[in-house]
Amino acid sequence: MSEDSLRKRFSIFKKKILNDSETTTETPPSTFDETSINFELKGGPYNTNLIEASATVKNGQNAGMPLPLRCTWYRSTNEKQFVTIEGVNGAFYQPNADDIGCKICVHAVPVSEVEEYTGMPAFNEVGPVQIDPDMQKTVQEIYEANYAEFTTNLVGGTIENLIPGTVSIKLSGNLINVSYKDGSDILSTKLGMGSPIINLSQKTNTSFSMTFENERIDFNTEKHTERDIIAITIRMFCSKVSTENQADCLIKIEQLSTRLLNLNKDYERTVSALNLLKEEHKINIKTIEDDKARIAELEEENSSLLNQVSAQVVVFEKNETELKFLRQDILVYKTQCEALENAINQRRINDNNWEILLRSVKEDLEEILKKHKFCENCKRIENIIIGAFGKLDGRVINSHQSSANSSAKSYQDEGSENTEDHEKEIREFKDQILKYKCKLKQLAIESAELVNRAEAEKNFYKRKADSLAAENDKLLSKLGKNPKEITTFAKERQEFEAEKEKILHDLKEAQENALNYEKLGKINKKKLEEEIERNFELRKILSKKSKAMTSLDYQKIINSLTVTVADREEELCQQKNISRELMNRVQELESILKLTNVN
């Protein structure tokens, strides 16, 4: 590696060097820097080869003389990541199993008692370190046999009643067993990803420890190669078991991911269906609001009708009062009409009596005329009467005849009365007949007027009573209190009120259900987003840290995914049930609204 590349690579990690406080010393007589030394790093490329850092003087009297070095060793896993190897400060470093696949870097500062070094620290690296071929062959044979047994020394640990001494470490499949020579077990457990953890000590090349969940066991081998073989073998068996577990876990995770994606698709379909239901619900709410407005208008019309009905009730009560008075007046008029009819009948009876009397007078007069011839005066009187009353009815003639008969009788009795007396009597009869005639005419006129007036009043009050009765029936029909007829208006009004209450109740329930469904939808959506985000994070973690995760971590992930999938299935079932109920409710509301619109 060239000097320029070494400088660039050193500049990457020199920030990690701690700035130690400088101590005040006397100024040395001379100084030297990196231009006056030759620095070399020898060793590798296998983990069994020792790595040596050396520096020699380049110029001057001491050219070629070695210089002591103060070294800091690093393990580089990539171009920018350096891990300090603790406990190693000398110029030599023995790689171990932890260094396989990594570069070994050294940063060295020459130390001289004569001169002070003022230059940059020397930097160099070797590697990447490879596994020794013989060691790799041994490990490969063990891997193919799927069984290994190592003998090493037990030093100590956290397990109670440990006895230091020679122990046996057995690996078989996914099991590890640590036991004494006599066969008594110290520890027996299953292998897993990172269990046990092998820690190689940097202070010595032969000591290492195995850490289980809560226990640690310290070991020491005779050679550093034995330690590396044990560490590589145990790690390889753990990796094999974890690879199998990881493959199973990845299959399960893939299955669960596929299942979760299907559930997410179902959820998206459910959400889209729920959105459609929400749109339909909004439309139904709008329709219900329109129905509410219509109901409000109908209520206003109903209130106006009620006001009109109340006004009509007042008018009806007033008309009933008037009807009572009119009925009383009708009774009075009936009484008066009956009295008039009685008076008319009495007049007719009197007329009949007069007619009878006149007929009897006429008959008497005719008999007298038959018996006695009229004198000239009687003939003259008769002519006068006939001339004056030529058009009189039979009653006047009868009265004249009766008066004539009476005058004839008086004439016969007296015998010698003169014509003046007859004329006087005739005039008196004439006056009486005229008076009776006038009275009869007046009575006939009054009787006709009374009869006509009574008939007119009777017809008027009859029509008025009929109109009042018709108005009364109409008002009772509007109020729904007519015993003769239960009107369709009352039935429709009752049905409308019942339908209105039912629609309002259903509307309230639908609004509450819609709010609950919306809340559940938001909660489920939030949970789904959290689950999706967590799944993406888990995938990122699995893709980045799959090598560093244990089978226990994979099992936890599988358990969490299983619980998540179960929760999602349960939530989807609940969401489907809720959506089904909402659809049924929407259909019921649509049918109710259709019936309301038809009515």
Rg (CA only): 71 Å
Q: How are helices and strands ordered from N to C?
A: HEEEEEEEEEEHEEEEEEEHHHHHH
Our count of helices gives: 8
Please give the CATH class of the domain at 3-130. Answer: Mainly Beta
Shape: rod-shaped
And the CATH topology of the domain at 3-130?
A: Immunoglobulin-like
Low-confidence stretches: 6-10, 12-29, 388-404, 406-412
Strand content: 15-25%
Distance between the termini: 99 Å
Report the helical percentage: 55-70%
Q: Major sheet: size, sense and barrel closure?
A: 7 strands, antiparallel
CATH architecture verdict of the domain at 3-130: Sandwich
Mean of pLDDT: 74
Provide the structure class.
alpha+beta
As laid out across the biggest beta sheet, the strand order is 14-13-12-11-17-16-15
Number of strands: 17
Coiled coil: 260-343
Keywords: Coiled coil
Biased composition (Low complexity): 401-410
Region (Disordered): 401-423
What's the quick description here?
The protein is built from eight helices and 17 strands. The protein has 599 residues and is of the alpha+beta class.
